[in-house]
Amino acid sequence: MRLILMGPPGAGKGTQAKFVADHFGVPAISTGDIFRANVSQGTPLGVEAKKYMDAGEYVPDEVTNRMVRNRIDEPDADTGFLLDGYPRTLAQVEELDGMIAHTGHRLDAVVVLTCDQDELVARLLARAKTDGRADDTEDVIRRRQEIYLEETEPLIAVYRDRGLVHEIDGMGAVEDVTKRIFEALDNIEQ
Ligand code: B4P
């Protein structure tokens, strides 16, 4: 199973990714988590990524694409993967197409989580109190939302044209959202 999980910041991608990945027995590959791990370890990749993440900007495509390519080449991704937060730009879509074609497989589905604007902001501000993520301040949240609308939302149409999009209501309890995703994906052919 090769899946993409998309949605605006705060829609629940990271939250749902692990449940969905476990359900299908594939690794959850979160670009945000990989960047954050590199930031906390102080690697050259982390130093580079931090500049962009703290401002709510996207990390440059070349850097992100190289990182995902390396991760997908690892043996645990041979039988499939769930991508959380990638692709986010058209250049990343094209790169991912090449990566998947290279494996001889195809993309099975793109799950798009939707959520009310007020709820998105409330969730991220609530997380700011508990997790202390540098990019969960009001200004940076606003910039992340803007860049999502400019760069990432248009990708939904690209995947919709390919018949891959499953739009899922991301409002309500976490387990209800998980149930909706499973219902949508359990019926697709692999
Ligand atoms: P991400 O880590 O992907 O950040 P995000 O969009 O905020 O999603 P996240 O998964 O963390 O939050 P979620 O919606 O699950 O990216 C961070 C940064 O990394 C980007 O801004 C960018 O700089 C960089 N980056 C990452 N990928 C990139 C790429 N491909 N190209 C370039 N740059 C890239 O959850 C948010 C909160 O809501 C949580 O606190 C959660 O507990 C809560 N929540 C979730 N579901 C809920 C529910 N049903 N009810 C109540 N609360 C819920």
UniProtKB/TrEMBL annotation:
Residues involved in ATP binding = 10-15, 127, 172
Name of this chain's protein: Adenylate kinase
What is the reaction catalyzed? AMP + ATP = 2 ADP
The family annotation for this protein states:
Belongs to the adenylate kinase family.
Q: What keywords appear on the UniProt entry?
A: ATP-binding, Cytoplasm, Kinase, Nucleotide biosynthesis, Nucleotide-binding, Transferase
Specify where the region named NMP lies, as residue ranges. 30-59
Q: What does its UniProt record remark on the domains?
A: Consists of three domains, a large central CORE domain and two small peripheral domains, NMPbind and LID, which undergo movements during catalysis. The LID domain closes over the site of phosphoryl transfer upon ATP binding. Assembling and dissambling the active center during each catalytic cycle provides an effective means to prevent ATP hydrolysis.
Gene3D superfamilies, alphabetized: P-loop containing nucleotide triphosphate hydrolases (3.40.50.300)
Record InterPro entries: Adenylat/UMP-CMP_kin, Adenylat_kinase_CS, P-loop_NTPase
Source gene? adk
Q: What is its EC number?
A: 2.7.4.3
Pathway, according to UniProt?
Purine metabolism; AMP biosynthesis via salvage pathway; AMP from ADP: step 1/1
What top-tier enzyme class does this entry carry? transferase
The alphabetized list of GO BP terms reads: AMP salvage
Where does the UniProt annotation locate this protein?
A: Cytoplasm
Q: GO CC annotations? A: cytoplasm
Q: Which HAMAP family match?
A: Adenylate_kinase_Adk
* Functional note: Catalyzes the reversible transfer of the terminal phosphate group between ATP and AMP. Plays an important role in cellular energy homeostasis and in adenine nucleotide metabolism.
Self-association or partners: how does it assemble?
A: Monomer.
Q: What is its main location?
A: cytoplasm
The UniProt annotation places AMP binding at 31, 36, 57-59, 85-88, 92, 133, 144
